[in-house]
Amino acid sequence: MTMKQPRGRQEPRRMGNAAMVVTMLVSLCVLTYIKARYCSNPFRTSPPLLLLLQFLLLLSYSCLIHQPDRPSTDSTATAAKAAEELEVVVDEDYDSTRYKLSGPIGEEDFDPSRPTCYNTSKRSERCAAVGDIRVDGNHSKIYINPLSREWKTKPYARLHDPVAMDDVREFTLVPFGGGGGSPNDTTTVVPPLCTRNHSVPGFLFSSGGFAGNLYHDYADVLVPLFASTHHFGGEVQFLLADIKDWWADKFKPLFRQLSRYDVIDVNNDQEVHCFPRIVIGSTFHRAMGIDASRTPGGETVVDFKRLLRRAFRLERAVASRSGAPRRKDRPRLLIISRKSSRRFVNERAMARAAAAAKFDVRIAEPDNHTDMPNFARLVNSADVMMGVHGAGLTNMVFLPSRAVLVQVVPFGGLEWLTRVTFKDPARDMDVTYMEYNVSLEESSLRDLYPEDHFYLKHPYDVHKKGWDAIKTVYLDKQNVRLNLTRFTRTLEQARDLLPSP
Prior knowledge:
Elements: H1 11-38, H2 47-65, H3 73-85, E1 87-89, E2 98-100, E3 117-119, E4 125-136, E5 141-145, E6 151-153, H4 162-165, E7 171-175, E8 196-197, E9 202-206, H5 214-229, E10 237-241, H6 245-250, H7 252-258, E11 264-265, E12 273-280, H8 301-312, E13 332-336, H9 347-356, E14 360-364, H10 372-380, E15 384-388, E16 404-409, H11 415-428, E17 432-437, H12 445-448, H13 454-457, H14 459-463, H15 467-475, H16 484-497
Parallel strand pairs: 5-7, 8-12, 9-10, 9-12, 10-11, 13-14, 13-15, 15-16, 16-17
Antiparallel strand pairs: 1-2, 3-4, 4-5, 4-12, 6-7
Helix pairs in contact: 1-2, 7-8, 9-16
């Protein structure tokens, strides 16, 4: 007769641990099934399912934190392996370290572990919610159920600049329906009734701040907007705050490529728009740039340029040393002209010298009233584009691939500024970059100040006085007269950099 052995003191603990492990594995299996079945399309996930997902995550977490303090050999090895798989990604535009496991995290994926609003970089903040969402834009309020607490946000990618942010409308995210707030809060929020229902997500952004300056149009608004919304495949409703009619009309072709729906002027619209999901604020990666590892579809600035080609019906994909057909083996030079500061004093002489060097020459000065589609086609026809540092060089987004951009850098030690604004973005856009650094002999500053003046002898000491001093001395008061011999030599170098036909 076999006698049953008495249970040891450790057996209940083993059985308890086994039960917790089994519970955790079952939870993870169910979680994996629900995520695969419902979360591939984020717009179909209902609040009850979200609560279930959150419960399962908490259950799994509880199982883990109630394990014995001393890890086993197996768990230590697993932790070490996970640590090896973690990739820490940091760059100068991001405040916090971002961690990635097994590939990029989808920027727009709803993540219940994150707060509703959080900084995505030093310059941008993003808010995201799923549930019953009601946008009362005329009163700058967005009612959300469920929502843990009230939030305030300004949807413009220049958080570090208080001057710009002063011109951006602030929106308040208001919880209602018992989906959040303090347990002791007896105040009942009654949201407005929906007057227009949408089946696609809403995306709220602003054209306030410095929008209207072409560089800031792209750096602060359009490039971040593309990076944050391209993966929607057009199934997204844009809500535009601080709208300027002329600005919205100017970029309408681009908006039509990103959304199948007319842009809503959220400031002046009298409707209460209801959505199953909303994202507020675009994510800034870097100046005029996109980090493919941080976009849901791995998009880059080259993809953004392709979208612009479709939007403005640009024909040329690649520049050529012989120029476009019917130009008699002459590449086209586009000189970006300026009327105010930093203008070419000898612009006409430059054009004649370029023509003598066998370039097909065009001179153009874009402004806020320029017909965008026509100007985009002009830039796209160029093989070389040249201009003094300024917003007009932003039109390089329309250049064909492997075209040459020649940035003329005013006197005054401004290479650091020209690098971050145009040199680095040009590389990402598949544009060959050249720099023409203006000598003192080519600068109008020598006519304003004596030879031994502090501004001429010690520009880097002027930099220590701050941006206002730099701008006033070296940007606002300076024009340039290029040395034609040096200018012609630069054009010959640019021609050599163009691809052969």
